[in-house]
Amino acid sequence: MNWLVRLLTFALFLVVAWAVGVVFVLERASRYPVEANFLTPWLERHASEQIYGGAVNIEKTRIALQPGEGGARLLLTGVSASGGTVAKPLNIGEMTVALSLPDLLIGRPRLTHITVDDLSFGARRKRDGSFVFSVAPRPGQNDAMSLTSVPGLGGIAEAATSPEEFHSSPVASPSPDQAPLDQLRGILLDRNGVLSRFEELRLRGGSLVFDDAAVDERVVVHDATMTFSANPTQARLNIDGLFEIGSSFSNGQVELITPLDGKGVDISATLMDMALADFAAYLPDNLYAEERPAAADLRLAVTVTDQGQLQRFGIERHDLGTLQNLDPTFSPLLPTLVASGERRTGGAGGWTVAIQTPSATFDSEPALREALRGVFVFDGSVSGSVTFDVAEDGRLLDLKFDAAIGPGLATLPSLYQIPVALRGGRLVGQFTPKGLRFDTLEFIPVINGRNLGPAALKLTIDTLAPKVYRIRMGVENNWQLTHDDILALWPDANEDAGRKWFRENIARGRTSGQSLDLDIETGGPETVVHNLQAEIRFADGAFKLTDGLGYARNASGQISIDNGLYTIDLDRANVGPVSAQDSAIRIDLRNDLDPRMNLRGQFDGELRDSLGFLTKADIGLKDLAETLPIDRTDGRMTAAAEMSLSLTQPAAFKPAYDLKLNLQDLRVANYLGGLPVTASALPVRITPERIATSGAVKLGKMNADTELDISLANNKLENLSLKAVFSGNTEDAGTLLGFLPDYVKGEVSGDLSFVRDLNGRQTMDVEANLGRAIIDLSPLPYYKPVGQPTMATARLSFSNAGLARVDSFKVDGPALHLMGTIDMTADGQNLAQAKVRNLIIGDNNLASVSLLNEREFMQILIEDGQLDGRPIIESILENQGKQDASIVPGTIEASPNAPNHKPWLVNVSGIRRFVVPGGKAFTNISLSATIDRGAVIQFSLNAKSPAHLPGRPAELGNLRAALTPQANGFYLLTFQSDDAGSLFSTLNLTDEIRGGVVRVSANSALPLPKGGWLGSMEMLNFSLVDAPIMVQLLSLASLTGILELAAVGGLQFTNLTSNFTYGNSALYLDDLRMAGPSVGMTTEGSIDFEAKRFALQGNVTPFNLVSEIAGSIPVLGQVLTGTDGGGLFSAGYKVDGPFSDPVVNVNPFQILTPGIYRQWFQDIISNN
Questions:
Q1: φ, ψ for residue 195 (rounded to 5)?
Q2: Which of 92, 149, 237, 956 is 20 to 30 A away from residue 343, measured at CA?
Q3: Separation of alpha carbons 40 and 20, rounded Å
């Protein structure tokens, strides 16, 4: 590169100084180039100094300014050099030099651009690594300024320079002892030097020759354009032209970049129609570039040292024509070859090389072929990549490969003796001198003319010593193979014990999947099997078991080989009269002196035939017939068996067995202490010491999951223990739960423990989950639980007739809580008496409830606590007037002697709170009632309603009610209260009434709640407060004075009387009259509680006292007040609509109208 240094310094000292007349020259030069020959002597003198004693001659000098660019150009014509470091005379002809004008004017000439046309350049690398450069002009060309043509002189090597020929240099020049690149970097980095602002040197139209004696190669670039540029961090050389390399001619580009503050050169090239073989001299041998003569488009990227030594490279090979677009942003299709390499440092040195190709063969891709030689031999197409490390002496240090293959014949020498036909596959792994490892080894073989599916093979080969290898292999697939197919695929380089056993013991079959794990050592004195694991799934097979059991036929399942341990897992097979499923036969041949068989499986067959075959098969089960009552059982048998027996003759040990039988459709009468036990499928576990069952049975009619444990001593019953987790519907319990199914409906589950000892004593503990059952306590109509209880526990005692007594029980949960004891009737079917404590059902919280089942009736006594009356009150209201109504929900089917078929005599005392609809409660309750078939035929109630306003006297709020059967067959209902307002507020009817005494009397032909009621009511001395309908009515009637009275203290009334009819949730009022000091009212119509609607009409009369006086006058009274009960002046009204928003209307024609005319107007309005 010192030629470039000298060319730059030579151009620098061709700069004109700021001599006499510079202003005049610059003024003219800003318009066009002007003669400046007065600068020629100065330029020649300083340029000659740069060639170390030689001479530079310039025929003509001109100068031109570059407005707006801050620079000036010198146009030099007839430039020649000779002597000094110029070996032969050099005629450059014409050149253009650009200077920084601001630096020039202050006395610091700095070079920025140089352009030379028709200049050829030559470089030669000697065998010792040093470089020699030469330059020469090319004749017959004109420059861009159309100046006089300069004839060319000499040829390519006409002028030459070499660093070792330099002996001295001017002070301003770089040391000739420096390497060319270092000299260039020093000049460009000199901040005060003439090249500190250098940007570009361009040589156009010449040739470039690189003669490399070190490798005996030559590169020629014809019609080259060479551009040298620099910036503060790097220098760049671009070469465009027609490249002649070896036998190839290629249009292309080459770029060289070197850092100014570092070392080395990065070279990138794009070449069309070029053979990679032409670069073989410059690439590592393991790339096998000499075997790639085909022309292609290439992209290369290399890094060399300052001395030209290759450090790293990258190659992309594309199809011809792919890279014709030389735009650097152009992205071509995927290359046909990608190769890269980097020189290794330290250790053995050498190279790390990576190669990737999308499609090739071992013949067309030699690097891939040679890398996998000895690992995999293949004659088909291949694609993929290899990465390998090669030492400086050529030794392969490490190889990583990832290759995909197409159809062809493959050989893995370490596994198979003959080639295997493949449809495709993939190989990923690593090879080192220590061995070979496949991370992925996938292939699709063709065996016996059949195409098989893809499969993966695990394979590692460790080199233990020369020609001694340890091979670890694993394969798993789901191919369907015959007996012969398996033997063809099983590696045959060395026949292992598993292959031999399979060949000798398997008769026939077809597989659906297999796997093999093999670890063997070969090459030594003998083949050593370190590990052998194999699994083969098969169907329609036949194989030998033992001499006593014979052959298993029609078998399907899996064979597993674990070295000397052979396991056959059967999905199904026939062994004698027994069918086997999900069975395993384990044959252990690892100890030649103690071969044995373990049997574990599922079997089924007819119970007697199957058990008889097993007891006679000479496998140690002959005592089974003496342990189980086989002759008293029926049905089929399914069995899960575990058995261990000796294969020596005679047997080395007594057989051990664990049989788990499932006896289907089994019935055992009087087998468990007289309890009938039936089961559709009963599992039985049998060992020599005990018999145990666990499964679903019926205890009576109740479903249960049971655990039965029978201890045996000399085949005799020693102890019986039964535990059951039962579930089902209570109606199926039969005698097991006694009377409880009459009152607990739905699903019930729980735990049961039953023990029978040697003396025949029987006890049972029960814990039941009632979370999904409905408690239907028919004897207690007030006690209606919300939801279900959670748990129930009980301890029961049994007699020969069944359940005798519930010694203790407890029901606990969010819906129900109680505890107590129960005595049963002698037959164990019905309740005799019960005592319950701490009964909590919803809002009921009762300290004591007693039930006594007398012959003719059921007596119920409730004491102390809180009683929720909402369910029965709501049931009465909802079903009032329905002849089939019942206050007891649900239909209870029970025996004629059951309590729900008898009248109930209920007595309640000490109840502190009686909750009614709306959430309020009466206090101090005492009640006696008779209930028969869901209807109340008699009751007597005393209670107290709480004050709904402060200040009420303590003696008020008393409520008395009664239902009494009459001699005429009717029922009389009466109630009265001395605080009507508190009564109606507690019943959640209205809060608008204050005070008052109310009395009601009604009759019905049927008991409560079956019939409707006809009666009358009376209420005295009460007032209405905050009554929205009354306020709206008075407002529409414009009775503002009465409104003001109502707003102050409410409307006062002295009496209210009415007849009524109640039925089907509707109240019908007839001739209701209300009278007070300020207003009087009449009302008739209906209040539908189910539909929640009003349908009322009547009259409202102001100043009721005046109207009464007028109405008492004979004859005239009827004229003034009318015959409808209105007053002297009154307004008709209607209230119609829902409770939440009724519509109130007032007849305007009736206001202040005498009664006889008011009726007349009303008739007219009604007709219209």
A1: -105, 15
A2: 237
A3: 14
